[in-house]
Amino acid sequence: MRPTYLRWRAGLGVVPGRAGWCSARGRTIDKGGAGDTVIGGSEILAGAMRGGIWSRLGAAAAVLALTSCGSASGDPGALPVPTFPATPTAAASVGPAGAVNGGRLPGDCTRLLGGNDLGALFGLPLDSVAVRTTIGTPAPAVGRTERLTCSYARTGGAKDDLLDVNVSAYTDADSATKQWRTNAAVEDGPHREVALGNAHGVLVERPTDAVLLVANGAETLTFVLPQPVRIRDLSAADTLVDLALRVLPAVAGGAAAPPAAR
To answer: Per the CATH hierarchy, to which homologous superfamily does domain 109-254 belong?
Structure first.
């Protein structure tokens, strides 16, 4: 039996053609869209698209398979290859929350402390902690260049607040230290210093919450822990110190050096 020859016709797709067109005998191509397959010999395209509608990509694959053989006259351009408009693709996400930030501070709170990481520390079920990120505005009057506010809360019916973290970047360490002292002075309750490696910390404990204010070079951090949220059987003070030691490397590691003072 003479093999069936195929050719492309605009508006019709792949149709039987005249002798002289080369078949794709012995070749199976399985790279078309939606499972379309090109089979050599007397077989023609087997469309896997339900409803009998050719996909654009499958038709293009079929034409490429046929044109690879050329024509009887040896003219490689005898069968034009149709072109189709590009299909938009979804943008790739960048990082754990998809955020990109060109400043010194992380652009997403999950880069400081993930919701599941905090939930594990507090003994909560997986995916039960929601994280909200708020990007603040600069405050040139006090030398603040960036501000990041992170709120962690229970999801579902409880919706209890678990932790608030505020991180600010300043033009230099002197500006950060000055603002850190100002912030600590306005907090009500007994104050005491805590050790945090090279960083400086002041702890304020009240009946409703505990606050840890930290100065770390040209950055300041404030942690607010509601009562009675704790890590296991730790005190409020030890819980805040533990959390601060986890967050500080993320801030210091992602921060660029502040501009030199002139």
So the answer is: PknH-like extracellular domain (3.40.1000.70)
